[in-house]
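Internal ticket #5521
Category: modeling
Description: The requester needs a full-assembly model to guide mutagenesis choices. All entity lines are attached below as received. Residue total reported by intake: 311.
Assigned to: D.W.
Attached entities:
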Amino acid sequence: MIDDVDRAIINGLQGGFPICERPFAAAAARLDLDEDELIGRLARLRADGVLTRFGPLFKPEALGGIAVLAAMAVPALRFDAVAATVNAFPEVAHNYAREHALNMWFVVAADSPEGAERALERIAAATGLEVLALPKTREYFLDLRIEA
Amino acid sequence: MTPDPIDLRIVEATQAGLPLVARPYHAIAELLGLAPDDVMARMARMQDLGAIRRIGAVPNHYRLGWRANGMTVWDVDDSRVDELGERIGRLPFVSHCYLRPRRPPAWTYNLFAMVHGRDRAEAMRQAEAIRAELADACRVGEVLFSTMILKKTGLRIASAAAE
């Protein structure tokens, strides 16, 4: 379980981590902690899976890349096997099961729209299923910060 | 921005996380054979230009009790979707809001907004609040709850670019 200090770290450090020689010392001072304690707690939160990671979040489009959301209607009996096939593609960044006729939703990241299209074609070929590509046309808002 | 190969090496070395040591940027610099000041200057530039959205802790929603992850999807009038998308994106419980193409007949929704509740009832109340904002500009909507994370590695940008 997480305690109040962990909670303050999670809520206070989802952004704004400084770029300087001793960033943990600077961030710790803002949280009224010392550097070693902050590093130790972050390591524990990451090892326990409370944090999926600690570091920069990149925007692929700004790096010349692209991320495309795609959906498939996977027959229930084949679901696990198809999930394994899809997940084996390194271009697949995340994959979620959802309750819908379109029951598998994944994001493909590539260095170009053509690269993403090729990955989606390979996934369609490997699974024998139709892949519905839903690239974003516009981003109105993105902020993944959540409260602990 | 147009990242150069050194930027992309920094992306590749940090996208799974920073080393949890007192001088993490120095550790990255050593790993890549670069000067620490160069690594820090390049990361600061990527952040200024929006290629780094933010640097910090990335929590697991489920582990913090946000168990109901709902992808709300709506068929919104094209002439009003930009104005409404901006407004929906500002609702405090919406974490992403995107315009996407319809793919009829299989997919007829164009506006996507992710909501997160401690349980499905909370997420459904959030979806109802979105529905109320969209009012008569929205013909129909649905909430797709996730039942399992099948994979979550985060984006692996540079490795894809290096292929």
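Resolution: model delivered.
Comment from assignee: Chain A has a mean pLDDT of 93.
Ticket closed.
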